[in-house]
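Entry:
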Amino acid sequence: MSAARKHTALPKAEILIEALPWLTRHNGKTVVIKFGGNAMIDDELKAAFAQDVVFLRHAGLKPVVVHGGGPQISAQLDRHGLVSEFKAGLRVTTPEAMDVVRMVLAGQVQRELVGLLNRHGPLAVGMTGEDAHTMTATQHRPLIDGEPVDIGRVGEITAVDTGAVQALLDDGRIPVVSSIARSAEDDHVYNVNADTAAAALAAALGAETLMVLTDVEGLYEDWPNSDDVISRLTATELEKLLPDLSSGMVPKMRGCLHAVRNGVRTARVIDGRVQHSILLEIFTDEGVGTMVVPDAPENTQGES
């Protein structure tokens, strides 16, 4: 009986041992995770995401979660009879719509995520980019036909103060940050793209890794002709690809580029539709997405 038991347990031991070099490398390091896509909507994926983040914390990493909430915002705006208009791929956000955005992000999406994480212990603390001036923004005016266009309360980040986030990390907590920010110029609150917010926060924290959950396997080599995923590329290689990317991937990949050009060691786009994709990406040799690394060769030695 004992021999059979030993035999069936062996694969588990091998899996744990495979994780050892990654546990050693990542111990004490900060990882910023952008939570989005299908993982935000599917209950099983949400629960698996929470397990992964708590696992990272107990494995000695310091996870920070940044989230948006596009589908939830759209649903709530519909309920309030507010029409969503998009210009240059961005939601036109009136002051009335901004009130709803703020309510959904800080009062609904964030609360649910904090609740899921805290099933595993007193770990997660919710905050927004407004809190303690964590993120300061200015109004974003996208260019359409060469002219800047007013799309309302949509912001771009001008400054990040990591004090409150770092204090939570030092206390062993998991910060869960909603991507809204206040302007120092007009004191308005702005909705900020969550991919951009996660990248800015990762850079400001000096994070080891930025992970962006999305609804594709990674960055495709030759979409739609092939579904081969690029497993690794440098910042310069990514920059050359940016003009040809689909509009949904642009903020994610721009965020990855910003991160690795500003001190983050690796940035990864991973498939949030796969349960436990975060653990697979961080603790296995294969990985499950696209990893972006800095150009300088001395920074990229020994990456998986």
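Residues 299-304 have pLDDT under 50 and may be disordered.
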